[in-house]
Specification:
- The complex is a heterodimer of chains A (about 110) and B (about 900).
- By secondary structure, chain A is an alpha+beta fold.
- Chain A has one domain: Arc Repressor Mutant, subunit A (Orthogonal Bundle), CATH 1.10.10.10.
- Chain A has 4 helices and 3 strands; from the N terminus they run H-E-H-H-E-E-H.
- In chain A, strand 2 and strand 3 form a beta hairpin.
- Chain A is globular and about 50 Å long.
- Chain B contains 28 helices and 24 strands.
- In chain B, the strands form 4 sheets. A 6-stranded mixed β-barrel of chain B has the order 3-4-9-6-8-7. In chain B, strands 16-17-22-19-21-20 form a 6-stranded mixed β-barrel. Chain B has a 4-stranded antiparallel β-sheet with strand order 15-23-14-24.
- The chains are: A alpha+beta (about 110), B alpha+beta (about 900).
- At the A-B interface, helix 2, helix 3 and strand 3 of A face helix 2 and helix 4 of B.
Chain lengths: ~110, ~900
């Protein structure tokens, strides 16, 4: 909790959600947890941003949702990547790499 | 696809809301468990989880935006914005709405006529298989004429391609015992007519073949309309009797409301088959024949088959030599006369609509350019071009749909107007018969048409500003500040103007050509003087009172005596067929001592039974010989005599003198005693046909037209003439009471209709074009105020300025006129068939229209040019 937190850059949330779904389908709470876990709690996702983002991605056809049963035997909605979602993930990873390289160059950290 | 999904989610909203709520509750529960594991108290754990999650309602709302509400909201925003923008410039909005409503209303009204008359199938099952069958003879110059009974029965029995054939004869009957005597249109029909048409009765039954045996109780089927009018919709009508021509008929059935034939008839009586089959000659043409084709048989195939049957008949019946058969689809042949008129008018109204669109497009374009800064600001603030185009198109569609609504209201009024000006009955070309048009109705397909046209036009005129928005440049727009981009959309406006002028010219020249053609037609001369003539028709009941010829001619002789002595009547006469009445009567004859005709063949000419005064009353020229007089009577001593017209002399005597020659009509001999001028019986645009006139005393007729030449207005005499006739027989119906001028007007109804509507459309087009030119030029001058001010400051005179503006306008007008003229030369052939004695490239008509449009266009330019000349250089420069 005491970790300093980075502000989430606009537009990067989509990338993070897609990335966290790369391995297996997950429910919303799980996605938030996974992003925290992967970033070593440097990034936290506000629920206020998470769910609209999920619905937006679903609307765009990159992820799809199915009702299933969670670990603790509760009904939960699981999100998984679609084929176009996987392509989108690759494309976004690629453009993120380019952007971060460029920014690092500018900052002289390369 | 995506759009569909949004629509779907719009309707599935309830389910999605629940799912969303459940999903979020699940999230909070998991967080609570996590907090519990971290050692919090249950209440605190839950509270913390909720706090962490944030405002559930707000999140749900945000999610909903993504969920498919966003587009609707954006649309609502567009709509609100469009309405606000339109309200803000009421002048523009009202002009655009009225222009469009006029175009949409006129085209929708005309479409409803086309839909009612041409497109809607006749109210019979499989109506497309119904045909009308005529006999035809190139030799006798007869294109369509009903067959005689024996031929009809031979066709019916020998044809395999028809399911069945039915025959009718049109006539009328005098109905008495139900108020004042009335002549009611009637039909004598073969008993299978209703099964050929495939209709059902509303009450009682239809005919069965036993009804065609004759000799039993007379039976009648009545129309639903007559049932309502004469019997007040009496449900017990079946089995009751009605007096027709003094004979009692039993009503056996009432037809359904949907029953409709293009021939007026309220009474249907069965025809005894034997009478029809055996008691008539093979050339006594008079039947109307309906045929129902078997499925998948074309009219052309059926025609080939009937001609083969007819060829076999000719082997045994030599009098049929030269005669063949023609089969025409029922619906299309009934509307043959009016179809080209309606199509040309529809093209014309489409042009008006296009011109209206161009005008509105130009108005919108000017507005879009005026809003250049607004567009630039919105682009700079991140609006996508797609969003802007959607905004512009929303405005256009709102405009189009409101105009469509107004236009549809206009169309209701327009249809009422058209019902009044389009004739109720139209001739069937070449058939000496008339057909009724179906009433014009605005039904679902007409409304759909109006809606479709509104949408289509919105896109059409909305495209121009949308394209402009697509091309506008942010930096340029912002830099120019409040002044809109000067050159913006100029080429587009000028192109639209060129199109508008070209379209208007096409329409105007069409009206010009029709005007000239109509003028020619009016002055073509019919062979008689139509003014100051009153006409009316009478048919004597021959079943009871007036059974014999002498009785019939005696009645008409007394009528002539009575009405001839009325004040204001200079002369009175009767004729069996009135010119332009779409009726015909023919005589077959041989010429005595003439060997030019092959054996067994007859000549044929039109026959008219008239009283001696007929020619003087009608103003028909008398040429040579002597007139008929009262000595040419039926008495045994008086020889049968007749007059012929000049067409008769040309055709049968090769211009040699026919006076004194004799014609053999069957057993009788008729001597030609005089020659009269030609009368165009079937219309000014048709050739005069050879006609033989005989005295009504010598060859009587039961149906006669009375013609009176009057000194007062013809209509003022109607009452006294009727009284005079009823003083002889108070049961005699008198109908078709008209002035001869009205008869002439009816006969030219199609060209009259074309001219009046085309003229109306042309005036509208001219007005719209003038407004369009004025608008564009005024805007151009306004944009150039600054430049003009500098020119004036540098010494340009006001004359120079006017000339400059006019030059700009006239180059546009010139191009438009040239393109329009080229178009007319290309499509002129389309209207050729509708023109009488006028070429579609008539230099006078075309020259006059070009001049008219040019004058109006230049005048529309001149007003802004004058304003430009008044520009004060100080004001103009300071305005910068």
């Amino acid at each position: 909790m005491a970790n300093p937190k980075a502000d989430l850059l606009q537009g990067t949330l989509d990338l993070l959600i897609l990335k966290s779904l790369q391995l297996e389908p997950m429910h919303g709470f799980g996605i938030a947890g996974r992003i925290g876990q992967l970033s070593k709690d440097m990034l936290t996702v506000e629920q206020g941003s998470l769910y609209p983002a999920l619905y937006r991605l679903e609307e765009q056809g990159w992820i799809k949702a199915e009702w299933g049963v969670s670990d603790n035997n509760r009904k939960a909605k699981f999100y998984s990547l679609t084929a176009t979602g996987r392509k989108q993930l690759v494309a976004e990873e690629h453009s993120w790499a380019k952007l971060s390289t460029a920014i690092n160059l500018v900052l002289g950290n390369a | 696809m995506k759009f569909l999904r949004k629509i779907k989610s719009f309707f599935r909203r309830g389910k999605l809301e629940t799912e969303m709520a459940e999903e979020m509750r699940h999230h909070v529960e998991l967080q609570t468990e996590l907090n519990l594991k971290a050692g919090m108290k249950p209440d605190d754990a839950r509270y913390a989880a909720l706090r962490q999650f944030g405002n559930v309602a707000r999140i749900q709302e945000q999610a909903r935006d993504v969920r498919g509400w966003a587009w609707l909201e954006a649309f609502a925003k567009d709509l609100r914005y469009a309405l606000r923008a339109l309200r803000k410039s009421p002048g523009f909005t009202v002009t655009a709405l009225l222009t469009l409503a006029l175009g949409i209303g006129a085209s929708t009204a005309l479409f409803s006529v086309i839909n009612s008359v041409l497109l809607r199938p006749l109210p019979f099952p499989n109506a497309d298989r119904l045909t009308i069958i005529w006999e035809t003879s190139a030799q006798q110059n007869v294109k369509r004429e009903g067959p005689a009974g024996p031929n009809f029965y031979d066709w019916r029995e020998q044809s395999h391609l028809f399911q069945d054939l039915a025959a009718v004869e049109l006539g009328s009957g005098t109905v008495t015992g139900l108020g004042e005597p009335r002549q009611i249109p009637a039909m004598r029909v073969t008993t299978n007519l209703f099964s050929v048409l495939n209709v059902r009765p509303a009450l009682g039954r239809l005919f069965v073949s036993e009804d065609g045996l004759g000799g039993r109780q007379a039976r009648v089927i009545i129309s639903r309309d007559f049932w309502q009018r004469a019997f007040g919709g009496d449900l017990e009508i079946v089995g009751k009797n009605v007096m027709i021509d003094q004979i009692s008929y039993q009503v056996i059935g009432v037809l359904d409301r949907s029953f409709w034939l293009p021939f007026q008839s309220d009474l249907f009586v069965p025809w005894p088959d034997d009478e029809l089959r055996y008691q008539r000659g093979r050339l006594s043409h008079d039947l109307g024949v309906f045929g129902r084709l078997k499925p998948d048989v074309t009219a052309a195939q059926a025609e080939t088959e009937l001609n083969a049957i007819h060829a076999r008949l000719r082997l045994t019946h030599s009098e049929l030599a030269g005669w063949g058969v023609t089969v025409a689809p029922f619906q299309s042949v009934m509307t043959e006369y009016i179809r080209p008129v309606l199509l040309v008018l529809f093209c014309a109204v489409t042009l008006v609509l296009l011109i209206a669109c161009v005008n509105v497009a130009n108005l919108l374009l000017v507005r879009a350019v005026g809003r250049g800064r607004e567009v630039a600001v919105r682009l700079a603030l991140g609006a996508t071009r797609g969003r802007l185009i959607r905004q512009f198109l929303t405005e256009s569609v709102v405009l189009g749909l409101v105009a469509g609504g107004l236009g549809t209201l206009l169309a209701f009024w327009g249809v009422a107007l058209l019902s009044a000006v389009v004739p109720a009955t139209i001739p069937i070309p070449d058939a000496s018969a008339e057909a009724m048009l179906r009433p014009f109705e605005i039904d679902g397909s007409v409304l759909a048409f109006g809606f479709g046209v509104s949408l289509l036009t919105s896109l059409l005129f909305g495209l121009a500003p949308a394209i402009y928005a697509l091309k506008s440049d942010v930096i340029h727009g912002l830099k120019n500040g409040s002044r809109a981009t000067t050159g913006g959309g100029r080429w587009m406006r000028e192109t639209l103007l060129v199109v508008e002028i070209a379209l208007a010219l096409v329409l105007l020249s069409g009206a010009g050509l029709m005007l000239k053609s109509f003028f020619r037609l009016q002055h073509a001369g019919l062979g008689f003087q139509a003014s100051q003539l009153l006409t009316m028709e009478m048919e004597l009941p021959t079943d009871s009172h007036y059974k014999t010829g002498p009785e019939q001619s005696a009645f008409f002789a007394r009528v002539l005596e009575q009405v001839g002595s009325l004040p204001d009547v200079t002369s009175a006469a009767v004729t069996s067929v009135l010119p332009l009445h779409s009726q015909d009567e023919r005589a077959q004859f041989l010429i005595e001592n003439d060997s030019t005709l092959p054996p067994n063949e007859h000549f044929q000419s039109d026959l008219r039974q008239v009283s001696p005064e007929y020619f003087r009353t009608m103003g028909i020229a008398f040429k040579r010989g002597r007139q008929l007089d009262r000595h040419d009577s039926a008495g045994g001593a008086a020889p049968l005599v007749g007059l012929v017209d000049e067409a008769f002399v040309r055709r049968f005597f090769a211009d040699a003198n026919p006076i004194g020659r004799r014609l053999m009509l069957g057993e009788a001999r008729l001597e030609i005693v005089g020659i009269v001028g030609d009368v165009k019986h079937s219309g000014a645009d048709r050739e005069a046909r050879p006609t033989l006139y005989v005295s009504f005393q010598q060859i009587p007729a039961s149906r006669m037209n009375l013609v009176l030449r009057t000194t007062a207005a013809p209509a003022s005499l109607v009452a006294s003439v009727k009284q005079a006739i009823w003083s002889i027989d108070r049961n005699q119906p008198i109908y078709r009471v008209e002035s001869m001028e009205d008869v002439v007007a009816e006969a030219t109804s199609a060209p009259r209709l074309t001219l009046s509507l085309l003229g109306l459309f042309a005036v509208v087009a001219l007005g719209l074009a003038a407004i369009g030119i004025y608008g564009v030029m005024a805007y151009a001058v306004n944009q150039r105020t600054n430049e003009l001010g500098i020119r004036v400051a540098l010494g340009a005179t006001s004359g120079d300025v006017v000339a400059m503006v006019l030059r700009q306008g006239m180059s546009i007008i010139g191009v438009g006129l040239a393109i329009g003229l080229a178009a007319i030369f290309m499509i002129g052939r389309l209207v050729e068939a509708m023109l009488y004695d006028t070429s579609p490239r008539d230099p006078i008509a075309l020259g006059a229209t070009v001049a008219l449009l040019a004058i109006v266009a230049v005048a529309a330019c001149f007003i802004p040019a004058r304003r430009a000349a008044k520009v004060d250089p100080m004001v103009a420069l300071r305005a910068e």
